[in-house]
Structure to design on (680 residues):
């Protein structure tokens, strides 16, 4: 227990941890503030203003179209070759009033029920990045500076030390994510109340939000675990950060291009962001537009569903492999 | 001297006295393997015994296997063979049971640069179930009290070394293992470190000291082990090691230097080996210094000086490890003369 307490103190004391959490908070705060100021509550005054704006635009468009209709009618009457450029019925050039619905002129409003699930993706994404670098740095810097060796002189049970560190990191990430998720929910509930609507929040919707939040929490913990495990295997923070960049550049961009060149069906199925999105939104349907025969009329491309369960298995296996490798190297390696 | 492994004690001569062996290493082997380089044998059947309450010097040239030995003892490196016992426990298997009694610094001190000395020690104390009151005590002991709140990154090498020693002393160990503790210390610091170690040994602590400052080792160590090419080349009390490698020569001066040739002839006639120098003779092969006095006085030559020629630890070390500098040659770190292992 004392080791866990010491590791907890060490994690919180580290400047890098504090800075990264602060940066994450600033990004999240910027998103929330941006959402607050880019939305507003809709009332009768806003609807009346939208109606007026729609009518104004409609009238302007009618004025412009009247000139074109006159030109059309002249062309039809003179039977000139230009008549081919106009429709049979010149009155079709005048737009209908329905083309300018007032709803399009209503300012953006925050519908909590529809929009909050999307913001959970943002929260999970930002916290996952913070978790990855904090996890990598937490153990990577310990190896790099000799802190791990010092600790092993006090606690020679290597796996116990590594697991205590990982447990501390996971507990820290869990606590931070839960607290921030609560603050995030409160902030967007306030935005919904002040700049939109919170209507339609049935128990079923809340349950769905809670499950999305839990999947977001899993993404954050997984990112922390992967950063920690890779840095532990490489005994340096840069090993994990370099690995992440390599995965993004080679494994995602390069792989994406290569799969497209090879005309592989559903290339997105091999890319990490697709699986993260599938995990968070429960299902992503991919379409194979290469299967379309456009000469034969309407295209109905073949589809493939990526479910959250399938992506979850992928993430779970990845985490297990990296975690196992980190434990194995910790147990076997000479610390020189 | 006979060592009884497994008993944790060492017999002194043939008498009844037993001294507890705090640390015993037998036939330790370690080979470093790499995909890119040929295997390198760092330890080749190394033996070592350290008795309780002693300050034991652990000497060897760079790359001889000192640090590998210490890291292996402390569970940081897995040996390929051999046996180690510390405080009557097999290590590394039983190391967790006794780690609270072992304070150690290995090689250059390394700490997280952005933590203060106080934080560094406090975290270690927490991790090792040591009372926090020990933190100011050891900071005082190593002279870092007034700089304890500063970040380690601002420390000089000597201050980091003091912090490393403080961390090793934190748990009030029975066995203290220090790898180059005087590295980076100023002369005053070296003397303080020497006094500290002597005081710790007097309080009952056993100190294993790896150092290249041989003058210091000779002053403060009761016994030494010298390692070269991964094997023990000398071991025992410092005085014994020096005596074993002393030539037993006597420097002889007479009242009149003109009598030296005749005196040399007189000594040679009794079986002694004599080397003549301008103002003195170097005599070996005599039973005792008194024999020189008797022989020369009997011939009417009177001594103005009769001095035993002593050796110091540095010369013994250089001789045993084959690392004495040779004019015009640049010795590489792994180069040492092949030397027969010497039993303790």
């Amino acid at each position: 227990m004392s080791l866990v307490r010491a590791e907890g103190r060490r994690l919180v004391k580290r400047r890098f941890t504090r800075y990264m959490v602060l940066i994450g908070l600033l990004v999240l705060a910027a998103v929330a503030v941006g959402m607050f100021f880019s939305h507003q509550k809709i009332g009768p005054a806003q609807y009346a203003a939208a109606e007026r704006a729609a009518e104004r635009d409609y009238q302007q468009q009618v004025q412009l179209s009247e000139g074109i209709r006159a030109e059309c009618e002249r062309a039809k009457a003179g039977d000139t070759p230009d008549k081919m450029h106009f429709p049979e019925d010149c009155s079709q050039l005048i737009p209908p009033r329905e083309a300018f619905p007032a709803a399009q002129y209503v300012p953006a409003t925050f519908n909590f029920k529809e929009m909050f699930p999307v913001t959970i993706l943002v929260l999970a994404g930002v916290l996952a990045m913070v978790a990855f670098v904090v996890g990598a740095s937490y153990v990577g810097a310990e190896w790099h500076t000799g802190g791990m060796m010092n600790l092993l002189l006090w606690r020679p049970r290597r796996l116990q030390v590594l697991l205590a560190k990982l447990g501390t990191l996971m507990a820290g990430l869990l606590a931070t994510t839960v607290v921030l998720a609560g603050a995030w929910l409160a902030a967007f509930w306030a935005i919904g109340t002040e700049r939109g609507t919170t209507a339609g929040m049935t128990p079923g919707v809340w349950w769905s939000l809670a499950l999305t939040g839990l999947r977001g929490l899993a993404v954050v913990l997984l990112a922390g675990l992967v950063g920690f495990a890779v840095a532990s295997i490489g005994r340096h923070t840069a090993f994990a950060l370099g690995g992440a960049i390599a995965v993004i550049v080679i494994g995602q961009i390069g792989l994406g291009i290569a799969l497209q060149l090879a005309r592989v069906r559903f290339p997105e199925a091999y890319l990490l962001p697709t699986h993260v999105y599938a995990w968070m939104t429960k299902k992503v349907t991919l379409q194979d537009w290469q299967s379309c025969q456009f000469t034969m009329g309407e295209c109905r491309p073949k589809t493939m569903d990526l479910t959250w369960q399938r992506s979850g298995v992928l993430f779970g296996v990845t985490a297990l492999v990296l975690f196992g490798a980190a434990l194995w190297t910790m147990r076997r390696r000479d610390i020189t | 001297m006979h060592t009884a492994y497994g008993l944790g004690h060492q017999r002194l001569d043939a008498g009844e006295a037993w001294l507890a062996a705090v640390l015993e290493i037998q036939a330790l082997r370690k080979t470093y393997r790499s995909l890119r380089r040929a295997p390198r044998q760092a330890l080749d059947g190394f033996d070592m015994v350290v008795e309780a309450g002693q300050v034991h010097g652990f000497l060897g040239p760079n790359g001889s296997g000192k640090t590998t030995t210490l890291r292996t003892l402390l569970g940081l490196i897995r040996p390929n063979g051999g046996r180690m016992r510390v405080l009557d426990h097999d290590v590394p298997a039983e190391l967790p049971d006794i780690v609270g009694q072992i304070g150690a610094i290995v090689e250059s001190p390394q700490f997280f640069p952005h933590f203060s000395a106080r934080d560094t020690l406090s975290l270690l104390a927490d991790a090792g179930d040591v009372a926090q009151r020990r933190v100011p005590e050891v900071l005082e002991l190593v002279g870092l009290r007034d700089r304890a709140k500063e970040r380690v990154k601002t420390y000089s090498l000597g201050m980091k070394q003091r912090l490393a020693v403080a961390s090793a002393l934190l748990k009030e160990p029975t066995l203290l293992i220090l790898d180059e503790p005087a590295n980076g210390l100023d002369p005053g610091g070296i003397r303080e470190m020497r006094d500290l170690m002597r005081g710790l040994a007097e309080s009952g602590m056993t100190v294993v000291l790896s150092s290249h400052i041989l003058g210091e080792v000779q002053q403060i160590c009761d016994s030494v082990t010298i390692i070269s090419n991964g094997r023990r080349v000398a071991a025992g009390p410092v005085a014994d090691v020096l005596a074993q490698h002393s030539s037993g020569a006597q420097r002889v001066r007479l009242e009149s230097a003109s009598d030296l040739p005749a005196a040399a002839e007189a000594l040679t006639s009794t079986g002694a080996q004599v080397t003549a120098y301008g103002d003195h003779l170097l005599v070996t092969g005599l039973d005792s210094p008194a024999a020189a006095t008797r022989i020369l006085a009997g011939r009417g030559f009177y001594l103005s000086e009769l001095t035993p020629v002593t050796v110091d630890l540095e010369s013994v070390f250089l001789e045993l490890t084959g690392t004495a500098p040779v004019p015009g040659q640049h010795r590489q770190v792994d180069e040492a003369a092949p030397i027969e292992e010497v039993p303790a």
About this structure: The mean pLDDT of chain A is 90. Chain A touches chain B at residues 2-3, 5-7, 9-10, 13-15, 141-142, 145-147, 149-157, 332, 334-336 (CB under 8 Å). Residues 158-195 of chain A form the longest helix (38 residues). DSSP finds ten helices and four strands in chain A.
